[in-house]
Amino acid sequence: MSIDALRDQIPDYAKDIRLNLGTLASETTLSDQQKWGAFLSSALASGNAAVIKAISVEVEGKLSSEAVTASKAAAAVMGMNNIYYRATHLMSEKTYGALPAKLRMNVIGNPGVDKVDFELWSLAVSAVNGCGMCLDAHEKVVRKGGLTTEQVQTALRIAASVHAAAAVMTGEAALKN
């Protein structure tokens, strides 16, 4: 299944999601690596098997094996970091936020692709996972690395649309069971 096949499965009540996926697939604000890496890392963060499969098929031939691995790594490490940093930020006792995380996250320092691309994918995953602290941190890095507000917004639009598609697909699957 590809993005087009995924879009065909999205019901009419979610037509806007279907249209957004199509628009974002042809978006030119980001490089292809940035765009498709954001799609893949957002899909992995969504946790929906149909969305993950469709986007994995779509990125074949569009991302190098190194970029696929880095996109997966962004979803994995941010899955951990978003929970940890969101929790320490939300806790009333601020001491936890001042403590070192003591979590391994070496991939952030050496992701195997351009650092800005990895950070952009980390930002997209942070949007899916709802971690404001991580969103701010990654946005600063990508902006310092030369990305524009429009490029950051495109990654956020990808994350939002992929997450919405996953929610629709999960809901539809639950209704069928």
Description:
It is a single chain. The chain has helices at 3-9, 15-25, 32-46, 49-59, 65-90, 95-98, 115-129, 132-144, 149-176. By secondary structure, the chain is mostly helical. It has a single domain (3-176), classed as AhpD-like (Up-down Bundle), CATH 1.20.1290.10. The radius of gyration is 16 Å and the shape is globular. The relative contact order is 0.18.
Which structural category fits the helices and strands? mainly alpha
Range of helix content: over 70%
- State the name of the first-level CATH class: Mainly Alpha
The count of domains is 1
Largest sheet properties: none
Mean pLDDT: 94
Order of helices and strands: HHHHHHHHH
Number of helices: 9
Separation, N- and C-terminal Cα atoms: 21 Å
Sheet-strand content, in percent, reads under 5%
DSSP summary, beta strand count = 0
What's the CATH topology name? AhpD-like
CATH architecture: Up-down Bundle
Q: CATH superfamily name? A: AhpD-like
Radius of gyration: 16 Å
Which term fits the overall shape? globular
Low-confidence segments, given as residue ranges, are none
